[in-house]
Here is the input.
Amino acid sequence: MWVGRNRKWDLAADVVVVGFGGAGGAAAISAHDVGAQVLILEKQAADGHLTSTAMSGGIIMCPSDIGAAARYMRELCRVNGSVAWTDDGVI
Here is the structure.
């Protein structure tokens, strides 16, 4: 269900999952399997969804140089020029 700006909605759930990547998907399925009503919130369009899990190749980073890791993540999330999948503040 798409809800654009300036629209109000009222949904209730036992569990709200923010982001439908690998972790979000696993959390949603696990909660559902034990009987919870689950609401998944995802900012990407369903027809062009690309999870950070897919972009990372499923690896886990444990950097010792935080600045270099942040630069790497910015480039990893860059789509085109100044357009990126993830805001710099999140990185």
